[in-house]
Specification:
Two copies of one chain form a homodimer.
Chain A lengths: L2 H20 L9 H11 L6 H12 L8 H18 L9 E2 L2 E2 L1 H5 L1 H20 L6 H15 L4 H10 L5 H27 L3 H28 L2 H4 L5 H4 L5 H24 L8 H10 L4
Helix pairs in contact in A: 1-4, 2-6, 3-4, 3-9, 4-6, 4-9, 7-9, 8-9, 9-10, 10-13, 13-14
């Protein structure tokens, strides 16, 4: 796919996603402080990689992709809650996220915990009231999200990462598979689920997401060494400061770069039957050289 | 309903609930510590009031109540996560819950936050894979849970309670409505939703739950003054120690007692058409004199 065509579609998806997210929690109930804390993190930018994947898979499976926006954004809310909680003092204790003060630095720990807590049911509400989907599609999507983010997905990965000090390569791979892979694979599968796509498409989405999730995380480890703090949005070297063993420690930068490319090829190969005009391929390849 | 018949049915429900909860997170994955922390709080007893209500409303709406067990227990998981997070140092900072050390006292803050986080998707997973329900019933139940526990339900109440220092009676009522009422009403509505019951039954369940939720919370305020710490499972006077204004401060014990009875009568009246053999009435009345 031509870069201009890729960029145009990405921007079209991104605009729809930002518009939709911006419409959430805009009212002012008595507890407007909760809404404000939720909005602060939900609207703090980011690439919106996950919902973009949801929209493209939905489109490829024959759905008007606009109908998948609430579903993709639901996963983005869950991703956002996980970032808020990951940054807490009792977790990674980070002050900066995407170049801005973390949620608890702005709103305090109490509200940060609660904003994260509220984003989870808010996400399911978006899926379960998504216009134009059947009950079966809604139920399917809600289950995909629950599996991706639950005690055998993202949270399991976070437990291993934070408390188990993974150091061998298979341990790191398991952490990334659960913590990052499950949610990226979930985002892809949500598009298939929203569209009522085939089992083959679901399997392709899952494989694409998991391979890309691992590549994404290894690239993250690399950026923690070679990145630019302003662009990356957080301090360089924080993994080392936190005593974390990364892929770069185990393989070195060069082999990490090669592995990112290999995983990206595998991801692309998984969707070869589905990726008719090459958006998923271009997306995967764009991530190999990302700097933020 | 005769007390022995009431007790027998309550015990039958309770046994099914405990059996089901006991079957959860029993495997030993690499992240068995997460499972253990989740189980610690999920299995720490309690009256299981909420899932009992789910089962009775499901039965009254014509469902084999056994099919509603996963749905009722899902709400109990969400209730449990809220207790774990409420007890955290950055919330109420409590050391004891139901007479046992709180989750973070046993497992540390990091794992307590994550165990709470994981219980939410785990709850949706139970609903969305509940055997014997249609997709429409599953989607309906998942939405009821999301509404009850979300940023316009339980978490909103927790924000007001923890951060807004409610002191006038209408402020306290709003807190209890959101923090306690929404989840008890949600438990009742889940039974109707699982059974595919009528709109009238759903409205009755909602009213019953909200009235009873408020009565429950006022009784809680009373027990914080007149209770027995061993029976109540937490220190007496903790509301005062935390500087919280309660219904007892505003109305005095006698008028609180009267209000509990009035609200209970209203709850009973809301289900007069539905409560064929009087279980809901007996349940409501049993709560007015509870000591734990």
């Amino acid at each position: 796919m031509e870069k201009t065509a890729f960029d145009a579609r990405y921007q079209e998806y991104l605009a729809a996603i930002e518009d939709y997210l911006n419409s959430l929690f805009a009212e002012k109930p008595h507890w407007a402080d909760l809404y404000e804390a939720m909005r602060y993190s939900v609207l703090s930018g980011g690439k919106r990689l996950r919902p973009v994947m949801t929209l493209e898979f939905a489109r490829l499976c024959g759905l008007d992709w606009h109908k998948a926006v609430p579903v993709g954004c639901a996963l983005e809310l869950v991703h956002t809650y996980s970032l808020i909680h990951d940054d807490l003092p009792c977790m990674d204790d980070d002050d900066l996220r995407r170049g801005k003060p973390t949620n608890h630095k702005v709103y305090g720990e109490t509200l940060a915990v609660l904003a994260g807590d509220a984003l989870q049911p808010a996400a399911y509400r978006l899926i379960l009231t998504a216009p134009g989907l059947t009950d079966a599609q809604r139920a399917d999507c809600a289950l995909i999200l629950a599996n991706a983010s639950g005690p055998d997905g993202m949270v399991a990965g976070q437990v291993l990462d934070t408390l188990h000090h993974p150091s061998a390569q298979d341990e790191l791979t398991e952490v990334h598979h659960l913590k990052t892979g499950a949610m990226i694979a979930g985002a892809c599968m949500l598009g298939v689920g929203a569209a009522g796509g085939s089992e083959a498409a679901r399997k392709a989405a899952e494989d694409y997401g998991y391979q890309l999730g691992l590549a994404f995380q290894i690239r993250d480890d690399m950026l923690d060494v070679i990145g630019n703090a302003d662009e990356f949005g957080k301090p360089i070297g924080s993994d080392k400061d936190e005593g974390k063993v990364t892929y770069v420690d185990l393989l070195g930068l060069d082999d990490c770069g090669k592995l990112v490319h290999e995983l990206t090829e595998q991801a692309v190969s998984a969707v070869s039957d589905l990726d008719r005009d090459g958006f998923l391929t271009a997306l995967a390849e764009s991530l190999t050289e990302r700097t933020k």
